[in-house]
Amino acid sequence: MGTIDLHLPVEPVMPKRKDYRIGCIGSGFIMRDCHLVAYRDAGFNPYAISSRTFDNAKAAAELRQIPVVYRTWEELIGDPRIEILDIAIPPDRQLEVVRRAVKQDHIKGILCQKPLAMNARDAHEIVELCEGAGIKIAVNSNMRYDQSMRALKTILDRGYLGEPVLATIEMRAIPHWQEFLHTYSHIEILNMGIHHIDIFRYLFGDPEKITAVARRDPRTPFPHIDGITQYTFHYANELLATSLDDVWAWPGEGAEKDLYIKWRVEGLDGMAQGTIGWPSYPERTPSTLEFTTKQSPNQWYRPLWNGVWFPDAFQGTMAQLLRAVETDSEPEIGGRDNLRSLALVDACYKSISEQRTVALTEIESQYSAYTFEGGMQP
C-alpha cells in the first residue's frame, strides 16, 4: 500500500512584488465583480480604470477603491505610471487595444480575455505584436485556476490514477450571451466550451484528432451554429476526453432548475470525479473533488478548500502574468500557448461543418502563414 500525499496545492503562486500598477479596461461583471475583487483579496494594485461608459467606470472605481478613472481606454494606456494592462472588453475589440498598447514603453505585461480573438488571424497578430514589443502576454483562461482542476492536475502528475483512459465534462448551464456575439454564428464552443477545451489541454496536452457535433439552442434567437455541443479529443495513447455542453438546460416554466458542471477522469489505477461550483454563483460554492487509487485500495479521498472559481481563480490568472514580468519568463497561460487552444476550437468547427473527425495537423497547416513555435514564417 502506497502513501497518498493529500497536500494538493490549489492556491496560485504569488509574485514577490504585488504592487505593479494595473490599468483596467472595462467595468462590466467580469472586471467589477471578479477581477477587481480577486485583486484586492490578493493584495494587487488596480491603479486606474476606463470603460466604454465613463459613469460605469467611475462607479466601479468607487466600489473597488481604484484611485484613477479615465474617460477612454486610449487615455489610460497613455498613462506612463501603468505597468500592467488588464483587458476585459469583448474579444473582438482586443486587437485594437493591443495595437496601441505595444507602442507604450511603460507597459510590461498584458492580460487578455479569452477567447484571445474571434478568429485565428487576429489572435496570431496579438501574440506577434506583444512578442515583438517584448511585452508579456497572458490569457485569462481562468478555469485552470479552479481549485478542483488544480488539485486534479496534481493527482494526475503524481500518478495516482495511472494512465488516463477516459475524461468527461458534463455542463448544464444557461449563459448570458453578450450583445456583441449576436453578430457571430460561432458562440458556445468559442465562448463557453473554450474553458473545457483549454482545461483538457492543461490536464492532458494536445490531442491528435477531434470529433464534434452541435445543434442550435432553442432559447437563443439570433443565428448560430453551436448552441448545444459535444466534442471529443482523441489522444495518441487512446485517451478520450469529451465534453457535453448543454446551454439549453431545460426545464420550462414552473419546473425546478437543475444546473451543474460535473467532471470525471478514469485511469488504469484510479478514478477522480467532482463538480464545478460556478453555476451557483453568486453563492460561494466551492468546487469538489474525490478520488480513489490502487495505491490505497478501498479508500476515497475528499480534499476540501474554501476558495471558489468565481472570483478567486482570477487571482491566479493575474499572478502568473506578474510572475512572468518579474522573472522575465513565459506566463503559464501565455498567448503563444493559447493559440493551441484556439486551434482546437477551429478543429471543432471544422468537424461540425464537414461532419467528420479532424486531425489537429489539418488546422495547423490551414494557417501555414504562422508557426506555433516562434512567429510568422517568411
Automatic annotation (TrEMBL):
Domain Gfo/Idh/MocA-like oxidoreductase N-terminal positions: 21-140
InterPro entries in UniProt: Gfo/Idh/MocA-like_OxRdtase_N (IPR000683), Gfo/Idh/MocA_oxidoreduct (IPR051317), GFO_IDH_MocA-like_dom (IPR055170), NAD(P)-bd_dom_sf (IPR036291)
Swiss-Prot/TrEMBL keywords: Oxidoreductase
Molecular functions per Gene Ontology: nucleotide binding; oxidoreductase activity
Oxidoreductase is among the record's keywords: yes
Residue intervals of the GFO/IDH/MocA-like oxidoreductase domain: 149-270
Pfam families to which the protein is assigned, alphabetical: GFO_IDH_MocA, GFO_IDH_MocA_C3
Family as reported in the entry's similarity comment: Belongs to the Gfo/Idh/MocA family.
The name this protein goes by in its record: Oxidoreductase
Species assigned in the record: Paenibacillus mucilaginosus (strain KNP414)
